[in-house]
Each structure stands twice: as structure tokens, then as C-alpha cells.
Amino acid sequence: MKLHLSLLASLLAGFASAVRPLTLSGGNFVNSAGDRFVIVGLAYQPGGASGYDPASGKDPLSDPDICLRDAAIMQRLGINTIRVYNVNPNVNHDMCMSIFNSVGIYVALDVNSPLAGESIHRHDPESSYHEGYIKRIYSVVDAFKGYPNLLGFFAGNEVVNDALSASLAPPYIRAIHRDLKDYIAKHSTRTIPVGYSAADDPTRRPMWAYLSCGDDADSRADFYGLNSYQWCGDSTWESSGYQGLVDTFKDTSVPLFFSEFGCNKVRPRPFGEIAALYGERMISSWSGGLLYEYSQEKSDYGIVEIDSNGDARLLKDFDNLQSQYNNISLDLIKTKSSATTAARHPKCEDTFILQGHSEKFNTSTTLSPNPAADILEKGSGNTNLGKLVPVTQTKTPHKVFTSAGVQIDGIEIRTLKDDESNTPSGENTSSAAASGGSGGGSGDEKDA
């Protein structure tokens, strides 16, 4: 009898699994089969930064009904990654993370928040780099390290965005990378990538060069994200500046992707940049990107409108984005090996870091000691250790409507096979629903 129970437990654990952890190979993310993984993703922060309220006991990954609704929508859209900006490490995320895992969606997670004491102050990094801050980010690691669909942690988001921050903050950003990696090495059963999300301004190249250089692997970034909104409306490869991006970062030794993109000066957005980002000229050195953003907020970047009762309506932007995703060449993404896979990390010399940069930039690799050495050794004390759980409910309790206002029947998730990530479905969800099809899924001001 014990043997049968053990077998049953093993089977149930299998039902709760879809994706496996990604690893790094030079300038690429790779899956357990050794195939290159390219991010097709969304920024996900319903309610924006103002929606983050730890006292409420909620965050974007704490309500299973909401996660089930959004995972079902995202599965049809065809994305494989979401970025979540603000989480409460003390609430349970097991079901939401398991739902996204079951449909083949990874989560890239920021360890910081907009609240005081939970991020590095760009103009006063020394005073904000303290034990309480370190305990916060270690608590986030403990809460999420057990999920195989955790793609990685962002150690910072646009901390450097002007001359003053460039002169002060870079060594603290490398220190946070070190602190997170040290903690992961001591308290996690697997290596979890840690990287940075940069502003698309004159500091973008020196930040990339500074964070990816040198022999100190612990303080280096494992990946580099760029928040870029250069491609607007009917831009072209030449007018958008994308060629400049490819030229600037062509020798990257770490995975490089858009941690945000999606200019909204023209609405509805045609998303012509999708063909460029996942096309022949860019896919060799770039690993995709995360569109800003999923839910419609005050800044007007959303692709889905969420009603106060929890029902959702796809916007025309959703239809346009899905159409663009359906034209992505999955074979090109899978087989196009990065030209920088075997690239070495350059030496941290000013001639490399400051190349073409006229502003004062702090290139020091002498880092402040961890102010929470005891916590590093003993742990954060967070007992909320996340783990996958069986996903037994597949149908969302909320209604979902097409951009034309037609309710989609049978909106639900479809559990994927083990180690299978989500891909574009080839369907137009709004048209499929409007014609009676089932629309089955495929296997600031910004707000955050």
C-alpha cells in the first residue's frame, strides 16, 4: 500500500510540472534539452505600482482565480514569460506560480518594490544599502526559489538613469548581484540567474559593459534587460534605431533582451517591432523581450481591460499583438545560435566600459561589504517557502470577452507536457470566439 501511495504522490507531482529551470550558456538562455530559449513575454502588474499594498496580504501572484483567468488568456496569446515587479514575500504564491508553470510560462521577478527601504535610492545608494533592505531581498528569494518556472531575479530597475546616479550607484548594483548570488548559492538547491533592467538612455552601454565585465562572476549580471520604447507606430528597422541597438550590444557575453518595450504613441499599437525583434537581423544577439504591459492602467499600455468584478475584455492591441506573434518563426528562434555564445567577459577597464560615454560613470569594482552577513549565513527567517502544487481547476470563474464584446466560451488553461513552454497558437482569439470557435490555447508615467 505504501508503494502505491508513493507512486500516486509521484504522479501528482508530475501533473504539477511543466517547465524546468532555464540555465545560461554564454549569451543565451537554454532549456533542459539544450535548446535556446527566447523570451516572448509581458510585463504583469495589475493595478500598477499603486496596486502594491503589503498590508492587504495580496500581490499579483496571490489570487488563484485571477492567475487562472490571466494564464488562460496569456496561453492563447502565446507568451512564455511574464515580468512581475512587486511581490509580498510573506504571502502564499504556490497556486499562481503552479498555474503559470502548468501552461509553460516562466516568471522574471524584481526583488525590489517602490516602498521605502525596499529598493536602492539612486542618488543616495549608501544609506539605502542596509540590513533591512538585504533581508527584504533575501526573503523574496526564499519565497520563490522553489519554483522551477522562476526565470530569474532583477536586482534593480533603472537605478542608474542620470549623471548623478551614474556617478554613485553602479558599485552598489554589482554588490546586490553579489549578495543575491551568494544567498542563492547557500540557500537554494539550484542556481538562479540574477540580472539588471536598464534605462534606454546614454548610460545603457556603460551599464551593460560594467555589469558584464571582469572575472568576479558573483557580482556580474547573468543577463541584461533594456527598457526601450524606440519603435513607435509604423517605424522601420532604420528609423527606429534598432540597428543601433544591435551594433551597440553585438559583443554581449550575457543574454540580452528588452525588459520592457512597446511605445504607445500610436493606438491601437500595430506592434511592427515584433517582426524585427524575432527576425533574422536581431535574433542572433537578442533573446526577445517583455511587452509593456498586460492590464490596462492609467498610462494606457494595456492589452487587456480588467473590470471591477474580475471579468476581462481583450483590447484591439491584444488582437494586433497576437497576430504579430503568430508570424514569429519558432524554428528560427530555436535553431539560431547566438554569435556570442562563447564570448568571454571583457576586463573591467575604463577603455571598455566608457567607450563613447562622456558622462561621469563610476567604474569601481571595489564593493561595499554585505551589511547583513549574519542573515546571509543563517537565512532570512522567511518560512513562506514556495513550492509547486497540483493544479486541479482549469476553467476560470471570470468571464472573458473579445475586443468586439463577444464572450469567449470555455475559457480555461490547457496543461502542457513536462518541460514544454508555451508558444503562439496560430489563432486569432477574438475572431475565433466571434465565429463560434472554441479558441483553444497553445501548448509613469509607467505603472510599475
Helical amount: 25-40%
Integer average pLDDT:
91
The poorly predicted ranges are: 1-15, 436-448
Shape: globular
Q: Determine Rg (CA atoms, Å).
A: 21 Å
Largest sheet: 8 strands, parallel, barrel
**Main sheet strand line-up:** 4-5-6-7-8-9-10-11
Question: What is the helix/strand order?
Answer: HEEEEHEHEHHEHHEHEHHEHEEEHHHHEH
The secondary-structure class comes to alpha/beta
Number of domains: 1
Provide the CATH top-level class: Alpha Beta
**Structure annotation, total helices:** 16
Enzyme class: transferase
Signal peptide: 1-18
Family: Belongs to the glycosyl hydrolase 72 family.
GO molecular function, one term: 1,3-beta-glucanosyltransferase activity
Quick recap:
The chain has 448 residues and is α/β, with parallel strands linked by helices.
Keywords:
13% strand, disordered N terminus, 8-stranded parallel barrel, TIM Barrel, 3-stranded antiparallel β-sheet, globular, alpha/beta
3D architecture notes:
It is a single chain. By secondary structure, this protein is of the alpha/beta class. It has one domain: Alpha-Beta Barrel (TIM Barrel), CATH 3.20.20. The chain has 16 helices and 14 strands. The strands form 3 sheets. The protein has an 8-stranded parallel β-barrel with strand order 4-5-6-7-8-9-10-11. The protein has a 3-stranded antiparallel β-sheet with strand order 1-2-3. Helix 2 packs parallel to helix 3 and helix 5 packs across helix 7. It is globular. The N and C termini lie far apart (52 Å). 49% of the residues are buried.
